[in-house]
Design goal:
The structure is a homodimer of 327-residue chains.
Chain A: E1 3-8, H1 12-21, E2 27-34, E3 49-51, E4 64-67, H2 75-82, E5 87-89, H3 98-112, E6 115-117, H4 126-137, E7 141-147, E8 150-151, H5 153-160, E9 165-174, H6 176-183, H7 192-195, E10 196-204, H8 210-218, E11 228-233, H9 236-242, E12 248-258, E13 264-274, H10 277-297, E14 302-304, H11 319-325
Parallel strand pairs in A: 1-2, 1-4, 2-3, 4-5, 5-6, 6-14, 10-11
Antiparallel strand pairs in A: 7-12, 8-9, 9-10, 12-13
Helix pairs in contact in A: 1-10, 2-3
Chain lengths: 327, 327
């Protein structure tokens, strides 16, 4: 018997989930639910598309609903609402608002007896797990998270809002010197500027003042002012040719000491190198959908994060197989 | 209230646990249990030492017993036996015999209502976790485990058994070319010889036939015959000066594809660089002792591996703190 998964929201993330479900033998895509006119949506697999308004008509056919909306406005309302009827998984990634989101979703999921997994993905998600495991093992140490090299959608959007900018792509790049200092076990104190640089590829409108655009980028508070930022002006054709992908990745490193006098150093490093940020996130969401379904079958309910889910729930292998082959 | 932990067996691992307990504010070392004459055991911290024969007299004072015996003969009998009376944690690392050990321990722990965590450490342990997580996320891919650079106790012992050898230290070294091929996402097929080399530092007796010793090493079945092995003859003073540590580490790498046509590649890499193999293992054992105690408090019992334990159980932080600070 396969796990029937539905997708709410059909952007990059939804398409990634659609593809990922096909890679797993124990999962099956039931359908896609959208706010758009279903007839206008062309899917990758030809699966059925429904108006999201009618989703409750499909309640009994869906084991888990993966909610692929945005963290700013969609998920804060969608996840608690759908947790009243479905096991759900989301990738809510506004770190500062996770406690509030957790509380809202938990109340709904406990009332309905469903499992709601929030903030699955890679950060929050796999990076969070590695921060937890490494800190629990090496309490006397320091943790560092680096992002990139990869496209930051938020920073790219911020550049696009500048007058005279037609399109832009921003890459976040971890600094090699900082990475090496951390890996050496020195536990350095690093400023924002020392950890990452930002590289921007900008398409300017004909006749636009490029000097002003560059100045507005590099001095932009929160987004760029605290970083060493490089700006390259390129043509729209170059942008489409060389910067069409959405790669990302990064590093979680913890360095810590053990021994009765702290005489031995250890470095734990977890890294991701991703061709497609949304497709990798989608793959994590599908693994956690499997977990949500099985935990609910085990009689569990409420809001869960990656911290609360025993790893075995994520794998399609049985406990016996896992112990024999992966332990 | 702190978690009272006792140690059974006082070798490198037991000493590592003794030191690690002092690094955690919520754990407390109750005492060390040994087969030796307790009066003859000099501890790092001055904690009380008892004859292991009398351990049941201390049953009510111990929350978790960390069993620091060897996998060959100690743990197969000790872990099931002590699981009848205590929450226990071990680092059983004979991969092929884990299913049998699990079954034996599970029966005892279920009967006593205790939690027994087996095979905690880094491999099995943290490496196993990373094999599971990465395979669950990227089902269309390949996993690779590399060990080293580090001292292999088993291989060092094998060299010491050769006639004319006074002492020896063997390092397992991952091959850079193989690591790079895996990181590139090519999913190469690698032979044993292509993955690791072995480097041996040997102290020969005066007048011993070094050519014969070297030949016996490099042709030794299972241990060295399938590897490119380098042998260096050094003095006992050099061995003591340059090879006193027990470093180890390694890499778990999974490379896999996503997308409707598998068009995007992703690489997940987890690595450890450890000054002291036993002290790092000990630190993992203490984190899992915390988990064992809390799971038992939550009414759970039976044998568990790292796969069965929700990550939050390992951390001294509360769920609220974890979501706020690490997610």
């Amino acid at each position: 018997m396969t796990i029937k998964i539905a997708i709410a929201g059909y952007g990059n993330l939804g398409r990634g989930v659609e593809a990922a479900i096909g890679q797993n033998r124990d999962t099956e895509l039931y359908g896609i639910f959208t706010r758009r006119d279903p007839a206008s949506v062309k899917t990758l697999t030809g699966v059925q598309v429904f108006d999201i308004k009618n989703i409750l008509d499909h309640k009994d056919n869906i084991d888990v609903l993966i909610i692929c909306g945005g963290s700013a406005t969609d998920l804060p309302t969608q996840t608690p609402e759908y947790a009243k009827y479905f096991n759900v998984v989301d990738s809510f990634d506004t770190h500062a608002k996770i406690p509030e989101h957790f509380a809202n979703v938990d109340a709904c999921a406990k009332a309905s007896g469903k499992i709601a997994v929030i903030s699955a993905g890679w950060d929050p998600g796999m990076f969070s797990l590695n921060r937890l495991y490494s800190e629990a093992i090496l309490p006397d140490g320091e943790s560092y998270t680096f992002w990139g090299k990869g496209v930051s959608q938020g920073h790219s959007d911020a550049i696009r809002r500048i007058e005279g900018v037609i399109d832009a792509r921003q890459y976040t790049i971890p600094c090699d010197d900082a990475l090496e200092a951390v890996r050496s076990g020195k536990n350095p104190s690093l400023t924002t500027r020392e950890k990452h640089t930002r590289e921007c590829f900008v398409v300017a409108a004909d006749g636009a003042d490029k000097a002003r655009i560059e100045r507005e980028i590099v001095t932009m508070p929160n987004y760029f002012a605290d970083y060493d930022t490089t700006v390259h002006f390129i043509t729209l054709d170059e942008l489409k040719r060389d910067h069409a992908g959405i790669p990302h990745g990064g590093f979680v490193i913890r360095s810590g000491n053990t021994g009765i006098n702290g005489e031995n150093n250890h470095v734990i490093e977890y890294s991701l190198k991703l061709d497609s940020n949304p497709e990798f996130t989608s793959s994590v969401l599908v693994a956690y959908a499997r977990a949500a379904y099985r935990m609910n079958n085990d009689g569990l309910c409420g809001c869960k994060t990656v911290f609360d889910i025993a790893p075995a729930y994520l794998s399609s292998k049985s406990g016996d197989e896992l112990r024999e082959k992966l332990l």
